[in-house]
Amino acid sequence: MLLVRPVTVSDHAEILALAKEAGIGMTSLPPDSGVLEKKIARSVASFAGKKESKGNEVFLFVLEDTEKKKLVGTCGIIAHVGLTHPFYSYKLSTIVQASDTVGIYSQQRVLHMVNDYTGATEIGSLFLLPAYRRDGIGKFLSRCRYLMLAECPALFSDTVISEIRGVQGENGDSPFYKNLAQHFFQMDFQRADFINATQGGQFISDLMPKYPIYVNLLDPKAQTVIGVPLQASLPAKQLLEQEGFRHQGYIDVFDGGPTMQAERASIRSVSESRRSKIAALKPLEHAPLYMAASTSVQDFRMGLVRLEDHKGGLAMEPEAAKALKLDVGDEMRFIRFLPL
Predict the structure, then answer these.
(1) CA separation (Å) from 104 to 95, 97, 147, 216, 222?
(2) Which of 57, 123, 271, 292 has the smallest CB count inside 10 Å?
(3) Residue 234 and residue 136: Cα distance in Å, rounded?
(4) How confident is the model at residue 89 (pLDDT cuts 50, 70, 90)?
């Protein structure tokens, strides 16, 4: 069975291996042992509901292949971004300029550095080993976070965002970064991205210009990738769009990738998920597949399970209930799962 569960301290070595596999550009899962140790500890404290985590919760999940006893993926939720470290974005807008004297009217695209998403909930840390990118597993891993957003709305913002990786070359360079931020940071993209991931974005405020950037003054290589996702990230963007996320003109300061946005209550998997009691445990060989989750924040587990109606509730297979730590009479949150 493929089980999504909270990360534990003992997962550190496998999480580090997954982060190295994910590579440069995934700022929410940096391949740094010390940083990941702190991130895991913060997630453990968040799931435990400790006072020091209130408002700054970070929930990191792992996808475990229970048969092979191996971690094969990750995903996560940051309850509120920008409360302890500034969260920067570029907002793309249009400025209209006109001169009656010379008879010229022009529209200019301009990038403004903003903190508009301060306090928003961010979903991220989505990574799946290549061997498991099949049979809708990636779709399941991406969508499972919405069950927690639906079950625990008080923990999260009304606005939910997700940053999509921008265009990068084969050597890992970003044409957007190379033709804009690198002039001010005086370091390569990989190093700047790593500092942002491990130390926060204060250096962005320290070194980047505060005034608007006129897009047509940038190198054409940078202009053409503004708001464009990395080819490998297109499936993730499409999954977000299926849930109701849209690009509202905000892009990443480093690689120019699009930031997707949705209102939590309108996310499809949030609004369509339901709660029910488990009425029976029995074999269900031909029943349809559902995404199902327990309702305890402390041990919020999710899996792909077979369910069917049973005496005012739902029947579940015993093995699945055991993996989710559920039993007859317990409540669960669920939604139908279609792989394609």
Answers:
(1) 14, 8, 53, 17, 26
(2) 271
(3) 15
(4) very high
